[in-house]
Amino acid sequence: MLDIHKIMVPTPYSVGPVNAYLIKNQPLTLIDPGPEMPAALDSLQQGLSALGVAVKDIERVLVTHNHSDHSGLAAWVADQAQARVFVHELEIRKLAPEYSYYQERYPFFAEGGLPEWELKDILDDADPLLKPVLPEPFIEAVTGGEELHFDGGSLQVLHLPGHTSGHICLYNPVGKELLAGDFMLKHITPNPVMEADYPDFSRRSPALRQYLASIKKITEMDIRINFPGHGETIEDNKALAAKSLQHHARRLTKIQNLLEEKSMNAYQLMRLLYPKIRGFQIFLGMSEIFAHLDYLHETNRITREERNGVSIYHKNPCA
Ligand SMILES: [Zn+2]
Ligand SMILES: [Zn+2]
After folding, report:
1. Ligand 2: distance of its center to the CA of 163 in Å?
2. CB–CB of 183/169 below 8 Å?
3. Ligand nearest to the CA of 66
């Protein structure tokens, strides 16, 4: 049996606290330690000490994906405890000091028709957290399919991309527990975050195709309880997966229908659906729209034409 404990760690984001998890079997393992900020560090240390554990006792750190609210403290914990950090190989380049979050996304903004002032609005809304950096000697790359052993159980590493390309979940086949990171959350639908595809960084990763395939995989698994990266524990995993599939199916149909009335670029669609959002939310809006447009295009439900470097989408007359 795995002895899993949740530690709530504050974040500066609207999503609220992140759930770190301690697995109190040997080797002592910490999943998603939280963001790099003083209040998070205090909460993590208090949470661990309430469980009778000091940071230096941690023997292994698992990071579900490289978003700063999950992975920010990984380097600090690894350094304090001389522990290794297990992370999917597709997340590793994002943890390098020279990685710039927007650099590889600029061409997608241009292709989407995002005006200059909107880009400035995104860039001016600086992340309150520092970009997570993880020195290479701490990193243990995983690709999915690995079995992480404990005294009294094991966790399987599942590669379930879509929220990020290298998102992993951890599954205990005996207790039928899933540690889901941001793959599935009870109250919000995770954003299929726009990122460059590996190894051809000039393309977007097919985030929604990956996400829907990941959700379908999960529906075939026997999951008794799902410990997500934010919010409450999920008991009816199949119902939540079905809800998520429905949500995206509806969103796909809505976008397809809007394009029947009028051809548009990604930015125009984003503003039609989200007229009021500002700052980083504009980036998330573009992400959401591009993920759905790319999926509709891949499945021949819409067509795309390039005009002056901007992709314009039309309904497919044959669809
Ligand atoms: Zn995330
Ligand atoms: Zn998150």
Report:
1. 10
2. yes
3. 1
Ligand nearest to the CA of 18: 2
Residue 318 has pLDDT above 90, yes or no: no
- The string of pLDDT tens digits covering residues 112-132 is 999 999 999 999 999 999 999
Which pLDDT score is estimated for 316? Answer: 85
| Segments of the chain assigned E as strands | 4-9, 18-23, 29-31, 60-62, 84-88, 139-142, 147-150, 153-159, 168-172, 177-181, 225-228, 264-265, 302-307, 310-315
Q: What CA–CA distances, in Å, run from 41 to 76, 93, 207?
A: 9, 25, 32
pLDDT digits (tens, 9 = 90+) for 131-159: 999 999 999 999 999 999 999 999 999 99
Domains along the sequence of the chain with CATH: 4-111+132-257 (3.60.15.10)
pTM of the model: 0.97
Alpha carbon of 65 to ligand 1 centroid (Å): 7
**212 CA to centre of ligand 1 in angstroms:** 16
